[in-house]
């Protein structure tokens, strides 16, 4: 039970989202900016999640959300989503300062010039569902409530 309590007080996006999904029976529905609905399911390993719109193996781990939050924090709380479908890592619209570029480099370990998978439409919806970031068209911005939680914990 103490592990549960620790996660509710955490400011790490990965822990917040993992806790909230677990609290919802291991399954949630999120909506994208365009209004598409996606089902997110917690995996049995306790560190990853699945979504039929993200058919990758191995599945994304919750730590991908920490990379996204760190990228937004480095840019004052807001970052462009980027476009990994049409651009390689390091090219305009897929720079490391974009969320897609940051995921490609810091989560997936890709190098400049390599193609990256573009999961942003689902991941952004999860961050919004968790009240960590506002999912805008082309950008994500950390919510005032999330920033206040970080401030209250002196982070």
Describe it for me?
With 155 residues, the protein is an alpha+beta fold. It has 6 helices and 6 strands, in the order ααβββαβααββα. The strands form 2 sheets. Strands 1-2-3 form a 3-stranded antiparallel β-sheet. It has a 3-stranded antiparallel β-sheet with strand order 4-6-5. The chain is globular and about 40 Å long.
* Amino- and carboxy-terminal Cα gap: 25 Å
* Global shape: globular
Poorly predicted tracts of residues: 1-6
Widest sheet, order of strands: 1-2-3
Global Rg? 15 Å
Query: What class, by secondary structure content?
Result: alpha+beta
**Helix fraction by DSSP (H/I, runs of at least 4):** 25-40%
Mean pLDDT: 93
Q: Can you write the helix and strand succession as a string?
A: HHEEEHEHHEEH
Mind describing the biggest β-sheet? 3 strands, antiparallel
Q: How many beta-strand segments?
A: 6
Task: Provide a count of the helices.
Answer: 6
């Amino acid at each position: 039970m103490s592990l549960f309590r620790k996660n509710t007080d955490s400011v790490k996006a990965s822990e917040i989202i993992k806790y909230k999904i677990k609290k919802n029976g291991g399954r949630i529905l999120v909506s994208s900016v365009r209004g598409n609905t996606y089902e997110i399911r917690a995996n049995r390993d306790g560190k990853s999640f699945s979504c039929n719109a993200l058919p990758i193996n191995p599945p994304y781990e919750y730590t991908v959300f920490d990379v996204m939050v760190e990228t937004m924090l480095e840019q004052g709380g807001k970052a462009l989503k980027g476009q990994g479908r049409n651009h390689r890592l390091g090219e305009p619209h897929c720079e490391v300062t974009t969320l897609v570029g940051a995921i490609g480099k810091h989560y997936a370990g890709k190098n400049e010039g390599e193609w990256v998978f573009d999961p942003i439409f689902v991941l952004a919806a999860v961050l919004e569902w968790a009240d960590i970031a506002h999912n805008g068209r082309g950008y994500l911005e950390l919510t005032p409530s999330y920033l206040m939680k970080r401030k209250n914990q002196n982070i």
